[in-house]
Specification:
Length: 406
């Protein structure tokens, strides 16, 4: 492993500050609802977005702003998604302009995000009124406030940072994310903002971001709903002083490994904090004929509502794993499949060669009563491997989404 986890998150890398305040979009005055991330210099930047055909106005504006491969700040509100609104583009552009009004940079160099209820007009006045405070509170210690300000139904903030060495220089990558419902593979109901002080070209950063997202965020499913606002963006300040990464090679691979680690940890935090969830589920698939088959099987298992319900009840109903593999559409020889469940309480084999085996229900219950469960699937038919991330399906999930707007 060429990296190590460190304290901090989106301000761990050189050149970055962040802040988060309550500006008044949310009625709850104790909840921060506006976040800002700012770099002292223009950064190379890249992003990936939701595949939903309904996309938020902030995504449209961010795509336009990142066409040149550069950015210098992120502004994001929670409490309102600014999606499916006639004036959505105008509001998203105004948010960018407000940043440029208060900081020495251009509006075209702002990444803008919004998250919350869809189809309600976003009031711009609270954002405008809060900008002076938001900028005044920018700090290298402000990442926790920013992480809180982008949360919606999340119960915990999500922050990660890693450190690695590239070309003899210490490089840091950190990020914050939000998302706990409406999460499904292909960029979930999530916003994730990552910063790094690595020197890397915009083209190579885009390549790395796309690959990291495909292995991590695109392997999450909470509830099968693909959001309209999902954005993963990365800004690279270059202040670490490494030779700029402009092509594939050892330096790029080191950077990609560290970036993927940040994205993976944030993915797990999001999956564990799924709406109403009590458990993180990780499906670990090995021995697939191809990487594509491994990913397809892992996703299918983690998306199974029946399996998610079984995990909530600590019920070792392995037949639901086989069922999900069977309708995955992947090339699998079911008679070669082994399944086991594992947690910090131990592990237990429940299926060999596609058939049930005797096991202790009592031990299985103990294993499945922990808050992090591995569903281990060995297909025994090739070299393909993959992981997918999800959570259990609980009574609380229905309750949360039954009165989300009210």
């Amino acid at each position: 492993m060429g990296y190590q986890m460190i304290e901090g998150s989106v301000t761990a890398a050189k050149g970055f500050q962040a802040s988060g305040i309550h500006c008044g979009i949310r009625k709850n005055k104790s909840k921060r609802d506006l976040a800002l991330i700012y770099c002292e210099k223009k950064c190379t930047a890249a992003a990936v977005y939701t595949t939903n055909l309904v996309q938020s106005s902030p995504i449209t504006v961010t795509k336009q702003n990142l066409q040149d491969g550069y950015a210098q700040a992120v502004i994001c509100n929670s409490g309102n998604a600014n999606t499916c609104n006639a004036d959505g583009m105008e509001k998203a552009q105004k948010m960018c302009q407000l940043v440029a009004d208060y900081l020495p940079m251009k509006a075209e160099d702002v990444i803008v995000g919004s998250t919350g209820v869809i189809g309600q007009i976003l009031p711009i006045e609270p954002i405008a009124d809060g900008m002076e405070q938001l900028v005044r509170e920018l700090s290298v210690d402000g990442s926790a406030d920013a992480a809180e300000a982008i949360m919606t139904t999340d119960t915990v903030s999500k922050e990660v940072a890693v450190e690695t060495t590239i070309g003899g220089k210490t490089v840091r990558i950190g990020g914050i994310s939000k998302g706990s419902g409406m999460i499904h593979p292909n960029m979930a109901t999530m916003l994730c903002f990552v910063t790094t002080d690595a020197a890397i070209s915009a083209a190579m950063l885009q390549k790395a971001v796309s690959k990291a997202a495909d292995q991590t965020f695109n392997m999450i499913s909470i509830d099968g709903d693909t959001s309209t606002n999902d954005t993963l963006s990365v800004m690279a300040s270059g202040l670490a002083g490494n030779a700029e990464i402009t092509s594939e090679g050892e330096d790029y691979e080191i950077f990609l490994e560290a970036l993927t680690a940040v994205c993976r940890e944030l993915s797990k935090k999001m999956a564990k904090d799924g709406e109403g969830a009590t458990k993180l589920l990780v499906c670990k698939v090995s021995g697939a004929k191809t990487q594509k088959d491994a990913k397809g099987v892992a996703k299918s298992v983690i998306c199974s509502s029946l399996l998610k319900a079984a995990m909530f009840g600590a019920d070792a109903n392995w037949g639901r794993v086989l069922c999900a593999i069977g309708y995955s559409g992947c090339d699998v020889d079911v008679q070669k499949v082994d399944v086991s469940f594992a947690s910090k309480a131990g592990s237990i084999d429940v299926c060999k060669n596609g058939a049930g085996i005797e096991f202790s229900e009592e031990i299985a219950k103990t294993v499945l009563s922990e808050d992090e469960i591995d569903i281990v699937v060995a297909l025994n038919d090739g070299e393909g491997t993959a992981e997918a991330y999800g959570c259990d399906l609980t009574y609380e999930y229905v309750k949360i989404n039954g009165d989300y707007r009210t």
